[in-house]
Amino acid sequence: MKFAPRSAFDSASGYRLLPMRFRRLPWDETQVLVTSLAGDWLVMPRSDLDRAVAGELQQDDVLFASMEARHLILADPARSTLAPLLSQYRTRKAYLQAGPALHIFVVSLRCHHTCSYCQVSRRPTSETTFDMSGAAGRHAVERLFEWPSDKLTVEFQGGEPLLHFDRIRSLTEAIVERNRSEGRSLRFVIASTLHDLTDDQLAFMREHRFQLSTSLDGPEWLHNANRPRPERDSYRRTIEGIEHGRRALGEDAVSALTTLTARSLTAPREIIDEYRKQGLHSIFLRPLSPYGFARKTQARQGYPITEFLTFYSMALDHILSVNQDGFELEEAYASLLLSQLLTPFSHGYVDLRSPTGAGLGTVVYDYDGQVYPSDEARMLAAMGAHSFAMGRVDEPVAQWLQSPAMQRVLAAGVAEALPTCADCAYVPLCGADPIDHYARQGDPIGHRPTSDFCAKQMGLFDLLLQRWQDGSAADRAVFETWALRQSGGSPAAVPEAPGLEVAA
Ligand code: SF4
Predict the structure, then answer these.
(1) Tally of CB atoms within 10 A around 157
(2) CA-nearest residue, atom 2 of ligand 1
(3) What is the 3-state secondary structure (H, E, C) of 53-89?
């Protein structure tokens, strides 16, 4: 819920309310989370919020100073300004200024796996008509440099992109050559099973400082069940690929994430322990997406979002205990949410932005020359829903931005203006994901009370806030480390965390 500022209202103590939203804490309904326009927050007794709203706070109340510091009240409307609040708002939304930084090149749809939860419409390894052509690649490189961002991340995806490594090589060389006059900061990533890595490929990657991202779903029995191959050797080949990549590119150049099937939900500790065993210091616990083969197998592989949240809570407990044991391991999505809760900075994650990151933070150049505002949009197109295609690689970027697809994305892409989100205490920290809502609910705006996206966001924010409140000092220190690493900040750069609970 939110309170509008009363422009003509001054309390007896001379303060004015600023726009705020609140949420009764599900685990303690006497307490409320109160958030400002820019995402500063306080947890306080509901009775204190009532006093503040009724204009009954006194200047020497501790709560008065806390609410003023978090831009929830304006202490002296005659002399105070909104400049600090607006400055923080700009910082929180800083990702808007540079334009898309993540550019995904889909070099082939071919793949040798038959994963039942595959989000893309993979093709057999022999079907080379699903490879990106040289002409499409050249146009895509031209378009890449029409965007204004100083920092460009170029991510090669598939299918299995290593099956069309010649195109990765030619695109990389063309981008590096063009960048001699552009002077952008470039980062290259390949999302791959890593099964087909060769020394020759790795030498090229080392030259251009590539990073590798792969999927590791857990211990051998789980990984092989989730990611089947006829030879039942998927796990072994993935581990060999990780080691091969590390030897050539360095320990930190290889990262992994896990996709959670119904089978995975039975094994939270085993999945975490596998990451520790492999010396991986980050894990991304991703629930299934409603795209591609995952939709077809949903009845067998899927689960209600409540089961994901139960799993996540157990996994988080185990990750925290692993950290207390001395092995640093972060959960990547928690880090993103904590960076929003505990720092004033913006983050680079496109699915958690408002305005949406689709087309404003990411662009996808598909193998056939079509261009999409997000990976999910191209997956929808592969399923026959083409309404989120922005255009083709031989058309100018300005034309893509004026396309009906982008108009549709933008109309539903500002969380603060969406039904339910507009009144939600978490909205300054949350994001809009119109394409996900279209995929799940058939409408880009969607219906938050029945939305899995919202249930996940609300559930995870609640979980992390509760752990932050009730956890040990050691757990809090782990959370702070994750948040600061994610936001690129340092303790010295954060003089005061934006949130603070006030004791009842
Ligand atoms: S998606 Fe849900 S949690 Fe996020 S702002 Fe909207 S209502 Fe709140």
Answers:
(1) 24
(2) 454
(3) HCCCCCCCCHHHHHHHHCCCEECCCCCCCCHHHHHHH
Closest CA to 498 of 20, 30, 38, 5: 38
In a domain, 447, yes or no: no
Mutate to test the pocket of ligand 1, among 336, 416, 454, 461 (most ligand atoms within 8 A of CB): 454
Q: How many domains does the chain have?
A: 2
Strands laid side by side in the 28-36 sheet: 2-3, 20-25, 28-36, 41-45, 499-501
Residue 247 sits in the same domain as residue 299: yes
Which of 382, 414, 435 marks a domain boundary? Answer: 382
pLDDT-above-70 percentage for the chain = 88
Tell me the torsion sign for CA atoms 377, 379, 385, 386: positive
Domain match, 126 and 16 both: no
pLDDT above 90 coverage of the chain, percent: 75
387: number of Cβ within 10 Å: 14
The rounded distance, in Å, linking the Cα atoms of 471 and 421 is 28
SS3 314: helix
**Distant-in-sequence, close-in-space partners of 398: CB < 8 Å, separation ≥ 6:** none
Within a domain: residue 164?
yes
What's the pLDDT at 100? Answer: 95
Question: Do 137 and 44 fall within a single domain?
Answer: no
Ligand 1 test: best mutation among 24, 423, 427, most atoms within 8 Å of CB? 427
Closest CA relative to residue 307, chosen from 348, 266, 275: 266
User: Tokens 């989730």 appear where?
Assistant: 226
Domain region containing 120:
94-382
Looking from the CA of residue 461, the nearest atom of ligand 1 is 3
What is d(CA 235, CA 217) in angstroms, rounded to the nearest whole number? 9
Positive or negative, the Cα torsion across 492, 496, 501, 504? positive
Does residue 450 lie within any of the structural domains? no
Residue 415 Cβ < 6 Å to ligand 1:
yes
Q: What's the gap in Å between 73 CA and the centre of ligand 1?
A: 24
- Render pLDDT for 300-324 as a digit per residue (tens, 0 to 9): 567 999 999 999 999 999 999 999 9
Residue-wise pLDDT for 13-59, tens only, equals 689 999 999 999 999 999 999 999 999 999 999 999 999 999 999 98
Q: Is the CB of 308 under 6 A from ligand 1?
A: no
Ligand 1 centroid to 19 CA: how many Å? Answer: 17
Q: What is the pLDDT of residues 398-428, one digit of tens each?
A: 999 999 999 999 999 999 999 999 999 999 9
Cα 245 versus chain centre, distance? 25
Burial 80-112, CB ≥16 within 10 A → b, else e = beeeebeebbeebbebeeebbbbbbbbbbbbbb
Closest CA to 97 of 151, 38, 140: 151
